[in-house]
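Worked example

This section walks through a single chain of length 693. The input is the sequence exactly as stored; nothing has been trimmed or padded.
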Amino acid sequence: MAVSMVPQCAVAKSDPAWLTQAIDIHWGRARERAGATQDSWTVALAPNGVGPSADAHNFVEAQARVHALLADIRAGKKPAKPIVVHVATGTYTLSKPLLFGPDDGGDAKFPVSYVADDPGHVTISGGVALAASGMAGRRMTFDLPASLTVDWSVPQQLFVNGQRAVLARQPNEGATWLVQPGSKDKGTVIPDAKALQWLQGLSADDRARAELFLYQSWTSSLHHFTVNGNAVQLAVPAKWAPLAFGNSQRFFVENVTAALDAPGEWIGTGRQVTYIPSGDQAGSPAAQIPVLPRLIQIKGTATNPVGYLSFTGMQFLYTASTPNAGNFVDLQGASAIGAAIEADFAHDIAFRNCLIAHVGGYGIWMRASVSDSLIDDNVVYDTGAGAVRLSIGGQPGSDALITHNITVTNNVLAETGKIFPGGPAIFVGWSNDNRLENNLVANTTNDGVSIGGKWPVGGPVSARNHINRNIFFNIGQGMLSDIAAIYTLSGMTGTEINENFIREARSYTKYGGWFGAGAAGIYLDEGTSGVTARNNVVVNTDSGGFHINYGRDNVAEGNVLAGGEQAEVTLLHDRGGKAMDFRRNTLFPISSKPFQGALTNATSSFEGNAVAGAGSAGQDVGTCGRGCAKQNAQLSVGPGLLDVHVSGAGTGQQTIDRVLANAGPHGDMAALRDVVITERRPKLSPPNPAPNP
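Given that input, the structure is written out below as tokens.
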């Protein structure tokens, strides 16, 4: 493990200013808290053992010191009190992930903590620094160190001056090609004539390394391929046949030297990386290539879990993301992708006041049989997939494997899905009794929160989860479809979704049908049952504030739903039973029909709702009937995140005021609520050529 003295992580210049401010506030707050002292056993970990009181040169040596203290405490040779490892300023570059097993954890009376002496200036890195070696025209080169070998036949990542570079692609970032009709084979894609001509012109070396990135509705896949006549044959078939979701399916090709032509792009060949600087980069370039798949692995066993272990005030940067031999097919949620920090068979684990960034998968993942743990007051951004993940993928083999009682609170989770856009910011699988509260979730490519994941659906999956008082902003950004700020799947008994503020949920709108405008505020997908959604405020979505596919015994009460491009309330299918009670909600619809789908007196009940807005008098409230009263009040939305107001006589303002006062991170982070939306971003998917006929 190499150690060097470097400043804290710099936010990429292309990141929004509010994120820069969030990190500044985050570290200032962490430093204020770092002054607290307690009676404890201490271990001093310093770069290369620098300092008169250094006990350890690296984390492995620090762990050995901790083991000795724990052994003495358990043997009664030392008093039982907390053990604190003070980690001195520096970058600790790992040669392999740090492993924390049962012997590394403490007890309720003597927990083990790794604490940065100066929060924000202790970095755990899985990257390798590259030396700048030259400049030819507008192309810059970096040399790999002699100790590093990279497989360029699969996609890699590069960061220059803290900014994620774009792996050379065609068309360039912001544009795509469209799949043409003519194939129903999951392994065959028909490109248009221009794309085909470009692909046929690739050199043999480029053909061997090229990757085709294929968008599906709510996910994507990555394929090696060959060109055969007018068709592209995928090395591994996609999950769905071409154009399965509509007539405008996108793709591009990356990881080829022929595509290196735009500022911010890069490509690796042999022992060198070539990069085209972007216009806002100045000074000496600093490049990093991630090499480790994860940074921290906390791993106990069913009979001997890891307990009472925490990390505070550190930065975790740079992890690799290498899909299986360059072929990756995602069904949902980037569920096969790992995280920078992973835990299995553990309890009372905590990550506080940390930053996780520039990673190739998820940020942090509490996997199998993790309980009573805390993810609090962190910033997680620039992730290849999502930010936070709870539970293993699919159905656990036994109840003992179910992760539960995890609190995710006061975090800023942003800029997710950079490689695997199907990854939600927070992904909760088969997991119970978790609290997701007072987080700020922004600039995602998929759901803000996704809970569930049982296919085929049926029966309870996740129960008694609490999604309360969060802020969701810029969800989806037009990248994918069939998404939501808050998404659930299958049985959810006892789950509550309360007092969240959702502003801007946008999808890729060119598939046609539901998939052509599939971004809702709250989306209870297939079989969702037993959910209560109260006093949420949802503003500006593609497909409305409240959407149910089918399910039973759900309640929507006291919500404010406004600005949906389609109906604010939809029940897509009737599979029998009562899907929802809809009461005392206030709607400010754009659509002339604020209710749509299979809403009938048999599937739904309506009571005390208000339909307001300038055109409310002419709107068709459909089956809501006497359960809806029309009002003349109007809702106005300004540029600031909190600029949402009701004018005129009507309902909804009290709910809006309460939600805006309490949603999102608390304390100093609350200042961000005044900043975020002033830099509203356009959708990530710009206008494409006309869809295929």
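What to look for: Residues 91 and 123 are 5 Å apart (CA to CA).
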